[in-house]
Design brief:
InterPro entries: Bact_2-comp_sensor_kinase, HAMP_dom, HATPase_C_sf, HATPase_dom, Sig_transdc_His_kin_internal. It contains 15 helices and 19 strands. With 594 residues, the protein is α+β, with helices and mostly antiparallel strands. The protein has a five-stranded antiparallel sheet with strand order 2-1-7-6-4. A five-stranded antiparallel sheet has the order 9-8-12-11-10, with helices on both faces. It has a five-stranded mixed sheet with strand order 14-16-17-19-18.
Length: 594
């Protein structure tokens, strides 16, 4: 990666987290502020509604107090209704009930019932009022209250109100004779729940909030959503509401976050609850979020532009120096880097130019010395080997032997010439198996002339004749077999050399076996072949070690020599190398190195 890219990436890695951190911090700060503002707004709204409802409830209770000391009410409930004065009081009572309804738009109707329950008086908007219907009011609670107001939770009227059944809330009191304190009856002031819910006010368009009055059990007795009446809030919501009085909190049910505010009503163990989705109160948050994201994006873009500009300014001299170095590395030693500044890069360019000049001079000197050295090495090698002189000399000796009719000497000299000719092999490292076979035949012929009691058998599979193997691979092994196994055997000495294709781990390899029937070796001698120190090796073990190293350096540790022997029964050497053919159109077998 170019250094310019690295600088740009480093700048991005430094700037990007900073801008992201700043953006996230600003977003969280504004989110917390908006959330706090939403909680305060919810608290403020609920505070206003609570004060309004408390005022209304206080007014309704005050109306009930005035009613229980009303003289016509006292007179009618004390009399049996037969005297003319009672009839006049009854008329005054109905007038008072009507005026009581008209005194507040939230009072729907009024019912007065005698203590025995046999007399009932009510406003003219009620019909089908019977003693059984009035059992819905809790008489026992009114008695226990001893004249105090008792609020009755929402119920559906069993009687008709303006010819229909509606949901009512009521406040009841026991009417007591102001003269002697004897209970005379009960008064029930009914409130239409739908009118009460209008006190909650309307939210802004698009905000679906819930305003509710709940009892101690969490049952909803009034709500701006009629469908919630008489239902019960979730247990988790109730625990949160009752554990924190007069406070707003965020409730998360896993699907939606809502802000829940609750306050206790002053005249009852009821609570008013305001629940609104938090996203509705924070609908302007997306504008702030877009502004913050835009600020972060612009900041990042500005930082990237500055990073590119400054990285180019810094790295331009380095790039020029790098290109000059690449050109020099490709062999253009005449290249020089321009020097445009005196800073560190300028100093590097100056030293580079100076160094390239020195290298160019040294290269010329080294090339001249290398040419002279190679010339001397070639001359030395030719002077040491002189193969044609050797071949010509041997051919001269052979001709002289034929002239004197010494045919055996001629054959030996020819075999010796063939042996050395194939050994040198014009410097080739790999030869065909058939050539190695001729090499072995020349060597073994000479040895059988020298040791008449030694015989040999060479049996190579015809499939491997064109297989390529390293030069002089088998001759040192055959020489060890003769020198250390067969030379001292008096009669019947035999050396067998065979070659064939063998499958090893699903891979075809060439296997050569050199076997003799000499004196053999024990386990200690076999072990010493591989474990003696270099300076302790004799010539036989050195040849074996040399061949082993040649094979493993070329083909890997999975190939090489293995030796087995039995005292008195000879030695068997097995040599394995990969199967590889020459380029004469012979089909190749699969060859894999271990």
């Amino acid at each position: 990666m170019p250094i310019r890219k690295k600088i740009q990436i480093i700048n991005i890695l430094i700037i990007l987290p900073s801008i992201l951190f700043l953006t996230i911090t600003l977003y969280n700060m504004t989110l917390n502020q908006v959330m706090e503002r939403a909680l305060r707004s919810s608290d403020h709204k609920l505070e206003l509604i609570t004060n309004t409802i408390n005022t209304l409830f206080n007014n309704i209770e005050n109306y009930s107090k005035l009613a229980i000391i009303n003289k016509p009410y006292q007179s009618v409930l004390n009399s049996d209704g037969t005297d003319p004065q009672s009839l006049e009081d009854i008329q005054l009572m109905y007038v008072g009930l009507t005026s009581l309804v008209e005194s507040s738009p939230y009072i729907d109707s009024v019912v007065i019932q005698s203590i025995q329950g046999n007399k009932t008086y009510y406003t003219n908007n009620l019909t089908n009022v019977t003693e059984n219907n009035l059992s819905i009011y809790p008489g026992e609670q009114l008695i226990k209250a001893k004249g105090s107001a008792v609020w009755i939770e929402t119920f559906q009227s069993p009687f008709l109100v303006n010819a229909q059944h509606i949901n009512l809330l009521a406040v009841g009191r026991r009417i007591i004779n102001i003269s002697n304190g004897i209970p005379l009856g009960y008064i029930y002031i009914n409130m239409d729940e739908s009118k009460l819910s209008k006190l909650y006010g309307n939210d802004e368009e698009g905000i679906s909030s819930k305003l509710m009055i709940i009892n101690t059990n969490g049952t909803i007795i009034s709500s701006n959503d009629p469908g919630l009446l008489q239902t019960t809030l979730d247990t988790e919501k109730l625990q949160m509401i009752f554990s924190n009085d007069n406070s707003s909190q965020i409730f998360d049910n896993g699907k939606e976050q809502t802000i829940i505010s609750s306050k206790v009503l002053s005249k009852k163990d009821w609570r008013i609850v305001y629940e609104v989705p938090s996203k509705a109160l924070m609908k302007d948050q997306w504008k702030i979020t877009l502004f913050i994201l835009g600020y972060g994006a612009l900041g990042l873009l500005f930082a990237l532009v500055l990073s590119i500009v400054f990285s180019n300014w810094i790295t331009k001299p380095i790039v020029r120096l790098s290109r000059a170095m690449m050109a020099v590395g490709n062999g253009k030693l005449d290249t020089r880097s321009p020097i445009t500044s005196k800073d560190e890069v300028g100093q590097l360019a100056y030293k580079f130019n100076d160094m390239v000049g020195e290298i160019q001079g040294l290269m010329d000197t080294v090339n001249q010395e290398e040419k002279q050295k190679r010339s001397l090495e070639l001359r030395l090698m030719y002077s040491q080997i002189k193969p044609h002189f050797l071949y010509n000399t041997l051919e001269t000796i052979r001709s002289m032997a034929l002239m004197t009719k010494a045919h055996d000497i001629s054959k030996v000299v020819k075999a010796l010439g063939d042996f050395y000719r194939m050994s040198l092999n014009k410097g080739q490292e790999l030869i065909p198996v058939i050539q190695e076979k001729k090499h072995l035949e020349s060597y073994l012929y000479i040895q059988t002339i020298r040791y008449s009691h030694i015989d040999y058998i060479i049996d190579f599979d015809s499939q491997i004749e064109n297989c390529r193997i390293p030069n002089m691979l088998l001759q040192p092994l055959v020489e060890n077999s003769i020198q250390h196994g067969l030379r001292e055997k008096q009669t019947g000495a035999l050396c067998e050399i065979s070659g064939f294709i063998e499958t090893k781990d699903s891979v075809d390899v060439v296997c050569f076996v050199i076997k003799d029937n000499g004196k053999g070796m024990n386990e200690e001698l076999l072990a010493n072949i591989w474990h003696r120190e270099q300076n302790q090796l004799d010539l036989s073990s050195f040849g074996i070690r040399n061949i082993q190293e040649r094979i493993q350096l070329r083909y890997g540790p999975g190939y090489g020599i293995s030796i087995s022997s039995v005292i008195g029964s000879g030695v068997e050497v097995q040599l394995r190398i990969p199967l590889a053919f020459d380029k004469k159109g012979i089909p190749e077998r699969s060859v894999k190195s271990s």
